[in-house]
Amino acid sequence: MAKASKKISEFSLVQGYLTRLSGGLAVGVVKICERKTGSVTDEELAKKLKVKVTEVRTILNRLHYAGIACYKKTKNRKTGWYSYTWAIKPRRVIELLLEEQAKEIEKLESKQRFEKDYTFFICKDRCSTFPFEIAAEYQFKCPACGKTMDLADNEKMAKGRNKQISDLKKEVEELRKIS
Ligand SMILES: [Zn+2]
Questions:
Q1: How many CA atoms, within 13 angstroms, populate the side-chain half-sphere of residue 113?
Q2: Gap from CA of 133 to ligand 1 centroid (Å)
Q3: Is the confidence at residue 39, as pLDDT, over 90?
Q4: How far apart are CA 28 and CA 49, in angstroms?
Q5: Whole-prediction pTM value?
Q6: How many A from CA of 43 to the centre of ligand 1?
Q7: Please, what is the average pLDDT of the chain?
């Protein structure tokens, strides 16, 4: 298999995933770990990211829990203290992300099937969309903002949904290439 020239942390899809998983700093942590494979300590990470070491540890623990980060424990002979050097498993990130994407695609496709069979009403401010029966129960007034709900353009909705699905599928293809 061809070796990926790009680091996984450069993919916006991966960045989004890491942020969802353990916050915005996680991307920085993974970036540094990828650059210095298997030789970064939590103290170094904290220094580079200019945050407290406890913050870095929280992120690393979450990544470790997900199987993304792993560590090696070494004892300093002089001080007797332990230090932990961290590494990232890029394949695991891709694996988790592909799982998540597959679920998302499935969800969108079932929405798509549902949307084909119903007539929808959409709020003027687009904060909610409901099938006819439910919109009628709300007397065609948006339950979120109180504005009128109008008949939605089914074709436009279907187009938007199709694009959403094909965009996700494209991203999955890209991910498969690097895994
Ligand atoms: Zn509304």
A1: 5
A2: 17
A3: no
A4: 7
A5: 0.72
A6: 48
A7: 90
